[in-house]
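seq as requested:
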Amino acid sequence: MDIDLVQTSCGFAVPFYEYKEDRKALVKWSGPKGDAGIQEYWQEKNQHSIDGFPTKILKGLLKKRLNPYLDKD
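struct tokens:
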């Protein structure tokens, strides 16, 4: 067996197996960054998918509201 690529995820927005509540890690991480900080992070980290294709994350609808988690308590 040859392994070419392995991917991991932070899991910040993944709910618990038995739903009890939303995880707060993503809100805690993204809230202090604000929209500008999230856009900077996306610019640095999310311009290409793991298979090398452009994500266009900073264009279109995503750019209209960068961080919906800021509105959560």
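The chain has a mean pLDDT of 80.
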